[in-house]
UniProtKB/TrEMBL annotation:
Molecular function terms, GO-annotated: chromatin binding
Regions that span the bilayer: none
Coiled coil: 86-249, 299-462
Protein name: Kinetochore-Ndc80 complex, subunit Spc25
Stored NCBIfam families: ASRP
PANTHER family: STRUCTURAL MAINTENANCE OF CHROMOSOMES PROTEIN 2
Source species: Natronococcus jeotgali DSM 18795
A GO term from the CC aspect: condensin complex
Keyword vocabulary terms for this entry: Coiled coil
Length: 599
């Protein structure tokens, strides 16, 4: 455990320093333990960077938290879900929800564009019909002009200047119409921008109601809570090591002391064993003789404090989760507010640019209007009675050409809009695929925690049923986890949380079944249940992929034959299984195993 990186490793009472080394393939891992100020500190390069999951589900000593949680009847759900980073899952859910909203907005925009297509196509058809009609009228006007202009050669010089004026008038009118269309387009754009500005301003008012002012306070509270949690983690680890050491001291005092006593004739170990026979143990801190029941009482007190600290850590975890969620919401609100402000400034700048453009175009329109008036006056001066009919025909031809040009320009604009919309609609399938994939990812994330819980319950119930069938405990019919939900308060909110309830069914000699509690299980039955729960966590969290080891210790409460069955069962699921057994228990194993008898 020490070489793998566990925080639960301990030093012998008479040692100030110890080292564990693991050679695995071509790699070597090591960890050194030091005793400083009454606590154990570690340093080195162990196999694991973070040993939490391994300590929970791979290193199954007597003090293992998973085994102890079953023995004490603790909430098993919180323990099995501890390695799951729920904050990261919730943050990923939030990002996917934002992505899905963005895709939905783009799809809504495509739907709106698609709804515009029928009107645009109808407008295109109408413009084509109007252009065809104007071309027919132009052809007629040109024929009439040709018929009326029979003596064009003789009048060409007289009409040359007049025709130039007509050409100039037609070009000027065309420019005037183009300017009018641009002014209309700019005004429509300004109206659209002003509508968007109203929407953005309304959104800004809503965003201003957020808790930006509370962000600093929240950050400070989160830091404080995290520091409290870190302190609790350290205290919990120290308590667990102390409890473990004292339990082992009671079980085998001779293991922790060696050599000769300074003021006594016999070996220290003999004295300690003698004390154990008289229900006393030599204290490992001061060397005085202490009654075992006093140490047991101290262990119970430490265990009570240990449980209190676990509850405190759970409460702090809940509060941290709530405050981090609030902080994320405020930060997202702030980001949205900044984006809206930037967009508002951009809209304002765009409106000003377009208004300046309208002002310039208005000047152009007035100039073209004035120029047209002057040209029409000049044409009136050049017209004569003889040429009046021909000039009228020229006007008719010019007017038709001008109208055709204007209609074709509108037709081109409509055609461009239709092509642009159709090009945008080509993206719909890709957007729908992205939305479907995002929805699937969201569904997977939202159910990931439920899936882990369901898998844990399924693994425990399956292995518990299999082992009970093999072990054949008297009148013990079934042990299983019943997954239920309960309402709990988190801050000012009520939320629904999952709960794991351990159920036990026994049978009477007459075969009648009745429900029992964990407190009535024998020590052997309780130990097997704790081991199976730890195995479920080992499999559900795929611990074997990073920690291909499992350690079993303190199995003496289980009889030898059942120990052999449990070891054989666990051997199927752990790539490397290490078991500490008494010699008589080890003899019950049917197969030959690699055995270490001396350390």
């Amino acid at each position: 455990m020490a070489a793998l990186g566990s925080d639960q490793a301990s030093l012998k009472a008479d040692s100030k320093e110890g080292q564990a080394v693991l050679e695995f393939g071509e790699e070597t891992y090591q960890q050194t333990l030091h005793r400083r100020n009454g606590t154990i500190v570690t340093e080195g390069d162990p196999y694991l960077d973070n040993p939490e999951v391994a300590d929970l589900f791979a290193f199954l000593l007597e003090s293992n938290e998973a085994r102890q949680a079953v023995a004490r009847g603790d909430d098993l759900r919180d323990l099995i879900m501890r390695p799951v980073d729920t904050d990261a899952i919730k943050a990923e859910i939030q990002q996917l929800e934002q992505r899905k909203t963005q895709i939905d907005n783009e799809l809504d925009e495509l739907d709106n564009l698609e709804n515009q297509l029928p009107d645009l196509e109808a407008k295109r058809t109408r413009l084509i019909d109007e252009i065809d009609e104007l071309r027919d009228e132009l052809e007629t006007a040109e024929e009439e002009l040709e018929a009326a202009n029979t003596d064009v050669e003789t009048r060409r010089e007289e009409q040359s200047e007049l025709e130039e004026k007509f050409d100039e008038l037609r070009d000027t009118r065309s420019e005037l119409e183009r300017v009018r269309n641009r002014i209309e387009t700019e005004r429509e754009s300004i109206e659209a921008l002003e509508d968007e500005r109203d929407d953005v301003e309304a959104n800004l008012e809503e965003l201003q109601a957020g808790g930006e002012a509370n962000l600093g306070r929240l950050e400070a509270e989160i830091d404080t809570l995290q520091a409290e949690k870190d302190e609790l983690n350290e205290e919990i680890s120290q308590l667990q090591r102390t409890i473990q050491f004292n339990e082992q001291l009671l079980e085998d005092p001779g293991e922790f002391f060696g050599g000769e006593a300074d003021n006594n004739d016999g070996p220290v170990t003999d004295q300690l064993l003698s004390d154990a026979d008289s229900e006393t143990v030599t204290c490992w801190t001061c060397g005085s003789s202490v009654a075992t029941d006093q140490i047991e009482s101290t262990i119970e007190q430490l265990q009570s404090v240990y449980e209190d600290r676990l509850n405190e850590r759970s409460e702090i975890n809940d509060e941290l989760e709530e405050k981090r969620a609030t902080r994320n919401e405020i930060e997202e609100n702030r980001s949205e507010y900044q984006r809206a402000n930037r967009r508002l400034e951009s809209i304002g700048d765009e409106i000003e640019r377009r208004r300046d453009r309208i002002a310039d175009l208005t000047d152009d329109r007035e100039a073209f209007t004035k120029e047209i008036t002057e040209l029409e006056s000049e044409i009136d001066d050049l017209e004569t009675d003889d040429s009046e009919d021909i000039l009228e025909q020229h006007r008719e031809v010019n007017q038709r050409e001008f109208e055709i040009e204007r209609k074709e320009s509108k037709h081109d604009d409509v055609e461009d809009k239709i092509a642009s919309i159709e090009e945008r609609l080509d993206d719909r399938e890709g957007l729908q695929d992205r939305r479907e994939k995002t929805t699937e990812e969201l569904a997977d994330l939202r159910t990931r925690i439920d899936q882990i819980e369901d898998s844990a319950v399924e693994e425990f119930n399956e292995h518990m049923e299999s082992l009970l069938e093999i072990l054949e405990y008297s009148n013990l019919e079934r042990i299983w986890i019943d997954q239920t939900t309960r309402d709990v308060r988190e801050g000012r909110r009520k939320v629904t949380k999952s709960s794991f309830d351990l159920k036990i069914v026994r049978s009477t000699e007459e075969g009648a079944a009745y429900e029992d509690s964990i407190n009535h299980l024998s020590e052997s039955e309780r130990e097997v249940t704790g081991l199976v729960f730890a195995l479920a966590g080992y499999l559900v969290h795929d611990v074997y992929e990073t920690v291909p080891f499992m350690l079993l210790d303190s199995l003496e409460a289980i009889d030898s034959e059942r120990i052999a069955t449990v070891v054989e069962y666990f051997e199927s699921y752990a790539p490397y299984l290490t078991v500490a057994l008494l010699e008589e228990d080890a003899q019950a194993l049917e197969e030959e195993h690699e055995t270490i008898t001396t350390i």
